[in-house]
Amino acid sequence: MFHFYDIIILTETWLTPDISDSELGFSGFQVIRLDRNHNNSTSTRGGGVLIAIKNTRSFQPISLTVSNVEQVFVLLSLNSGHLLVGGVYLPPRSPLSVVESHTTSVEHIISSYKPNSLVICGDFNLPNIN
Hints:
- This protein has one helix and seven strands, in the order ββββββαβ.
- The chain has one helix at about 95-115, and strands at about 5-10, 30-35, 50-55, 60, 70-80, 80-90, 115-125.
- InterPro entries: Endo/exonu/phosph_ase_sf (IPR036691).
- It comes from Macrosiphum euphorbiae (potato aphid).
């Protein structure tokens, strides 16, 4: 089913650490994911982000130290340079500090890795945006 895709980004995965990557059905893909840390969240369910990358693609996962934002980033090697890909989930009514943490981490990644291009996908749940 996924053989037409090189990169898949999911938000609100609802995954927990007891669910292994092999159970997700992404055969032929490497999975980079961040499950919701229920110790840092006011919500007891939901959340989580995932990037699945076809095994034929060369990439580097980006380590982040931000603990209050559900986001994962990878740097893909392409013929034309490097593409930074991110998956983000911001819960509804997130405080401004969470949005600021996200934008600060993106700025840090861009300045550190200097990608040629950037794609960020996700569910930002920002007010007044449809």
